[in-house]
Amino acid sequence: MSNNIPDISQLNAIVKETIDALEEGKAKIFEISEQAQNEYKELKAKLHLIQEKVQHIIKETELLEKKELERRKKLMLVSKNFNIYSEDDIKGAYEATKDLQIKLALKREQERQLILQRTDLEHQIIKIKDIIERSEYLTSHVAVAMEYLTGALFNIGNTLEDLQKKEILGVRVITAQEEERQRISRDIHDGPAQSLTNILIKCEICEKLFDIDLERAKEEIKDLKNLARDSLKELREIIFDLRPMSLDDLGLVPTLEQYTAKFQRDTQINVKLNLYSNEVEIDPVIEVAAFRIIQEALNNIKKHSQGTKCSIELSIENNKLVGTIKDNGIGFDLEEANKPKQNLKYDSGFGIYSMRQRAELLKGKVNIETEQGKGTAVKFEIPLCVGDNAIETEEE
User: What is the distance between the alpha carbons of residues 25 and 254, in angstroms, rounded to a whole number?
Assistant: First the structure.
């Protein structure tokens, strides 16, 4: 055993103390999460009651508005025909109208106060939800750390370094999954969910306008169609980011052409493609791996490279799928990126690792060539086989 590795009994003692501390921290995080969950439920219940009250008082306000309008009309009629109506009739009509106006003002103030309460509750719910998400995020990390500590680390021996890498990878994978889920959740919440809410509001407006302003109702319906169209577009983009259906239907080449065209529109980074013939058939598993590697490389270009153009080359060589993604960006320190990170959050180092991992799972490899100020080239090759069966392909 290396002199740098402490005695197994000492390691076990350290692990036990760490597990105890993690257990205590996990219990506190869980307590915070449980309290937040209970408060979240209470706030949601209050919000539901407030919303019902708002709807009820809106109806009452509308009814009072109609009555007040009728009273004002009657007051005008009585005032104009004073020779027919007595002074008491005029006074009674005036007082009745004034009384309704006071009631209406009070109802409107009640409505305003309820709306303020509803807005405040909605803000509180957003804050509590954020606390719940953060506590769940921490709990998942603590659970992963405890799993590795209680499982593998007690029998660490000469495999300590390898197990540490697995621990880091496991946490990073779960972190990446959670961040991806949160991204999708945010995309749906900020996009289609908001649009659907607006569509619902527009529908309610249209219902009211049909009886009083048909032309405006038609305009609202046009807006409604545009909202529905935008929502459908956003949903398709989210689905495409999860897994492009064209990858299964059309193959890798058309999917890349479609994806890079959108990438150019969104980022203004010029992409030059040099791809093998679309007639070549490749196993779907290999196509997915190649697409994800290219997608990750383009994502890094967008986020970090500050480049203005890039090129993607794909070819079939010696029964292998060979790819290169180059950019004219600022490059980076590869040695620094390859160092193990103390911070287990999802970072660019994990992006490189995930590309390599995808290729290595299919007996392939990924090489990164970069120099600060001179851009980056991501090169990969994947054998055109799955298991023991080689895929016979020749580029014409």
Answer: 50
Spatial separation of the C-alpha atoms in residues 208 and 131, rounded to whole Å: 39
Report the distance separating Cα 43 and Cα 131, nearest Å: 14
Phi, psi of 376, deg, nearest 5: -140, 145
The residues, any chain, with a CB within 8 Å of residue 54's CB and separated by 6 or more, are 111, 114, 115, 118
| DSSP H stretches of helix in the chain | 8-80, 87-151, 160-188, 194-209, 214-242, 245-249, 252-267, 284-300, 334-338, 348-361
Phi-psi region of 331 (alpha: psi -120 to 50; beta: other; left: phi over 0): left
Three-state secondary structure call for residue 309: strand
Whether the predicted pLDDT of 153 surpasses 60: no
Nearest-angstrom CA–CA distance, 171 and 346 = 9
DSSP per position, 190-208:
IIIIHHHHHHHHHHHHHHH
DSSP 97-117: HHHHHHHHHHHHHHHHHHHHH
Contact residues for 44 (Cβ-Cβ < 8 A; gap 6+): 125
The first and second tokens of residue 51, run together, are: 């919303």
Cα–Cα dist 354/366, whole Å? 10
Higher pLDDT, 50 or 178: 50
d(C-alpha 66, C-alpha 100), whole Å: 10
pLDDT of 85-115, one tens digit each? 777 777 777 888 888 888 888 888 888 888 8
CA angle 184, 300, 270 (to 5 degrees): 105
Residue 334 identity (one-letter amino acid): L
State the pairing for strand pair 309-317/320-327: antiparallel
> Burial, 35: exposed, middle or buried (Cβ in 10 Å; 0-12, 13-18, 19+)?
middle
Amino acid at the residue 31: E
Reported as type and span, the H/E element at residue 273 is strand 270-274
With a cut of 60, say whether residue 8 has pLDDT above it. no
Query: Is 137:26 a contact under the CB 8 Å cutoff?
Result: no
pLDDT tens-digit readout, 354-364 = 788 888 888 89
